Amino acid sequence: MAVNRFRLVRYLLLITGCVLFVYPVIYAIGVGFMTRNQFATTPPAINPFQRPLYLGNYKYLLLINVKGAPHLPIYYMNSVIRTAWYIVVGVLIAFLAGYVFGRLNFRGKNLVFFSLLVATMLPPVVTMAPSFLWMVRFPLVGGNDIFGRGGTGFLNTYRALLITGLVNVMGIFLMRMSLQTFPRELEDSARMDGAGLFRIMFQIVFPIQKPILAYLAITTGIAIWNDWYTPFVFTSVERHQTLASAISRLTSSAVGQHSTPNWPYIITLGLGLTIPCLVLFAFFQRYIVEGLASAAVKG
pLDDT (tens digit, 9 = 90+) per residue, 23-34? Predict the structure, then answer.
């Protein structure tokens, strides 16, 4: 009897936790069916679906009414391009650097790796100004001379969206831990068969590291998809904005003009950021667990 009571309490706690997690998403979906005036005049209620239902926000989100939000397709395109770029190139850099630090021996390896780890320990507020100056004063780019003077560097260019944060130090750290105890017999056998370094890396090592690579791809994709800071800070050009930065710009612009933001529209765009991440996590969460487990066990 005591076991049944304990099971009942456990299920009630789980159900309560699920409701607390799902309800904000349902509420946001309901707010998307409101106009700005409905949201401003309707008092908060448990049921967010107020009559009549307004479909305009979701038409914008699904690109049915492009005329009402002419820049929205550009936001989507930039978000997809930037996320795909960071997944492919960022994960590849993490794999190559992780292999170098985990499998190769050279002078100063530990010092360089330790320096990378120390850089990640600095709070973002400390690195914000240096990162901005580095992008603005980058030599021989955007009208700058070799000393980084005379131009604007990468500022207000599309390249700024594809450079900042491309080196994932935590991904390098996890790859290194996963590769440190990789069986050297496999590499030695490949070398005896005449395989070179790159063939060993991509035909022997790369396929075996699928769990940690999948983990890096998923977490990198989610982080870049939700990244509003980089486009918001490093470019003010409308055609360079992503969906996340556009939401921030809409909010800050309305506040700067001392007006009320169009919260139903902004919240609906926020669903365009949140729901893909939730779906991705729900379907690929086992890869996240396997990737972290492989790095932890092998490390």
Answer: 888 888 998 998
Q: Are residues 118 and 192 located together in one domain of the fold?
A: yes
Q: Which one-letter DSSP state was computed for residue 178?
A: H
Q: What is the pLDDT of residue 243?
A: 93
Compute the distance between CA of residue 235 and CA of residue 243 in angstroms, rounded to an integer. 14
By CB atoms closer than 10 A (0-12, 13-18, 19+), residue 13 is exposed
CA–CA dist 225, 41 (Å, integer): 33
CATH for 216: 1.10.3720.10
If asked whether residues 87 and 53 sit together in one domain, one would say no
Q: Which residue do the tokens 């005379």 mark?
A: 150
Q: Lowest mean pLDDT: which of 12-21, 146-155, 247-256?
A: 247-256
Whether residues 37 and 176 share a domain: the answer is no
Residue 105 in tokens? 């021996």
* Residues 30/47, Cβ–Cβ less than 8 Å: yes
Query: Are residues 102 and 113 in contact, defined by beta-carbon separation less than 8 angstroms?
Result: no
Q: pLDDT tens digit string along 249-296?
A: 888 877 666 677 888 999 999 998 888 888 888 777 777 766 666 655
Note the pLDDT of residue 299.
43
pTM confidence score: 0.86
CB 176 within 8 A of CB 101: yes
Domain of 95, in residue numbers: 72-298
Which pair of tokens denotes residue 10? 């456990």
- Structural tokens at position 282: 């729900």
| Number of domains observed in the structure of the chain | 2
DSSP state of 50: P
Where a domain ends, among 18, 50, 70?
Answer: 70
